[in-house]
Fold these 2 entries.
Entry 1:
Amino acid sequence: MNINLSYNHNNDSPTVFRYIDWITIVIYLLLVIAGAISIYAASYDFDNASIFSFNEFSGKQITWIGLSLLLGMILLLIDPRIYETYAFPLYVGMLGLLLITIFIAPDIKGSN
């Protein structure tokens, strides 16, 4: 099976959304929604029943879901050559942060 991903001058300019695995995205969104509903059900308050209330765990979870979807869209729109250029320096920097954490992080509740 031969798939041609090159630019075709007869069609509109290609977008990144054409090559996304939509089945995986839909399954992911269904799991995220099920998780948010589970958090809402587990922390249900009879006096203040609102899934979007930011005082509830479910409201905070929905906020993080929205922010993660926004960040995912932004990351998809960035040119892939930037990732290729900065992948190694970012990897080394993150490893450095992990090593620094071992030495400067305080012990909390017996975590050694």
Entry 2:
Amino acid sequence: MTRRGEIFEGIVHGIFLILGLLTVGCVLLITIYLVAAGIPAIAEIGIVEFLFGTEWAPTSSEPSYGILAFILTSVWGMAGALIIGVPVGFFTAIFVSKFAPAKLKAAIESVVNLLAGIPSVIYGLIGMTVLIPAIRTIFGVANGATLLAAIIVLSVMILPNVISQSVTALDAVPSEYEEASLALGATPTETYFKVSAPAAKSGIAAAVALGMGRAAGEAMAVMMVAGNVANMPSLFSSVRFLTTAIASEMSYASGLRREALFSIGLVLFLFIMLINATLNFFLKGKSKKR
């Protein structure tokens, strides 16, 4: 390599190093800020009362700051979205990657990219005008703005992440794997589900992780369809998520109430970090065993 090439390589390496450190630094700054802003309220309220209290009433004569309902609602909403969205996204990805003709594959990928680019407020608007009246009519409930509506909206919103990342993972599987399976007498369907999918499981798991993050962190669309009431989670009741609790009150909250909202942000941040860390642990553990 010439002297000029070495200098160029050094410059590129330095740029990548700076960008990587900048990313890590941003995460650390966010973490420090949330801890510094969230801990005082938790210390004043009490961690047990804050995390396991069932009543959120910051404006009553005796204020209550329990967020258990928000935590359980977020868990239920994320789990419901994954139960619906992941199978649909996975089978769609299998079809797009392995079965669809080239033109159809390009068309489906364009639609998936379009879904990813739609603002969340549009999903919420469609949910308000179409989904909520449908739930009210089909299930005979007084108010269609329910946890079920939020789950359906979230399951649609995570589809682009699940589909696009899974297709990328499946396309990256070496063709030799599939050719060897077919040569041994397996059918194409057996090959795709028993060879290609297991070989791409780390990428598919990453797609699921992205979907989990999207479902856990969504606020605007959920606030428009879930009713935004601090109830314990029930499929046909209006509920409030961790994200919507922050978004709906932060603009006018003050004092301990505002600090408690920062504490909710800290809980949400740790919740998402725990999910990602757990998923990475199991994926790395399985890869090491192999």
